Backbone:
């Protein structure tokens, strides 16, 4: 499946999606971090076509999230284990799990995260490691980093200083927003 | 673009991906949460084909992450604002940002999250809201929830009790792992 490459976009979200931003890749990582390692285990779990699974496994090895280990020479058989980079992907899956449980599980949670000792259900929230404070606006802000290029800096420079326009508009619908530089036009 | 539907999978990660698990959808949500609202703003930001953008915006409205607001009747023009559900998606983007900055920004961060008052860079980490403890194994575990079906329960029942097989194998490569119920076979 071809798509426009995000690899050269500076945005760290786009770069992550370039490597794992495909339905199957995220579910393969979910299964790999769960402990599945072998081709047929992934296939049984996902019901994915073998050629698609092979392609996604190769891409995840190439992106450095999985490592291939040959466990049988005759016949040749490989297994796939998460690397440190692959294990670092777990917070994305936890965030997706929490989001799915909150919004798309009307019948209750099918999978949940609990304290392994007490069994008490955890509520995942993203905080700043040093201060422990929840990362949310307006206490925290997204800003251009040291390696930001001109386009990223301009993008952030044009942004209203506090919160988003949309949030501001919801808070006060009387706010009159200026048109964007290019006249808005709904194309479809 | 057609793909196998994840909607009927019980896994909350799969269900989230069904709604937003597409490269463009996540970047549209990134831009919408940044404050962009209008069709041409998204198009300028993303360099996406208009028909694809229209399709993804419609899907995000249908999934309840964006709301459409008509701001001009003649000519008809809509803008798109994040709903509460859309705002709840932000932790997924923060986790992707942190992952991308850690692993795919060799030249340094292009975008980063800072304390809005002090400008000190934040380090996003997922914790349990009540206890403040980082959600990681083996302190926390993924378990079947109250709505788990038979397949999910079996899946977790077969799992080794602590950690993943892959993690165990890395910690002690002498561990001999049993074959999976279906004889492993690399299909491609």
Residues:
């Amino acid at each position: 499946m071809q798509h426009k490459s995000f690899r050269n976009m500076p945005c760290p979200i786009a770069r992550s999606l370039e490597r794992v931003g495909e339905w199957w890749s995220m579910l393969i990582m979910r299964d790999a971090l769960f402990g599945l390692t072998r081709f047929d285990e992934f296939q049984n779990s996902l019901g994915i076509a073998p050629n698609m699974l092979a392609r996604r496994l190769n891409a995840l090895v190439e992106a450095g999230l999985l490592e291939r280990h040959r466990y049988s020479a005759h016949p040749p058989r490989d297994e796939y284990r998460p690397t440190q980079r692959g294990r670092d992907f777990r917070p994305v899956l936890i965030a997706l799990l929490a989001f799915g449980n909150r919004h798309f599980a009307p019948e209750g949670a099918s999978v949940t995260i609990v304290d392994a000792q007490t069994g008490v259900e955890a509520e995942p929230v993203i905080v700043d490691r040093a201060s422990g404070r929840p990362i949310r606006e307006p206490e925290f802000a997204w800003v251009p980093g040291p390696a930001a290029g001109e386009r990223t800096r301009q993008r952030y420079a044009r942004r209203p200083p506090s919160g988003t326009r949309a949030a501001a508009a919801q808070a006060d619908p009387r706010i009159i927003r200026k048109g964007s530089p290019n006249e808005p036009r709904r194309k479809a």
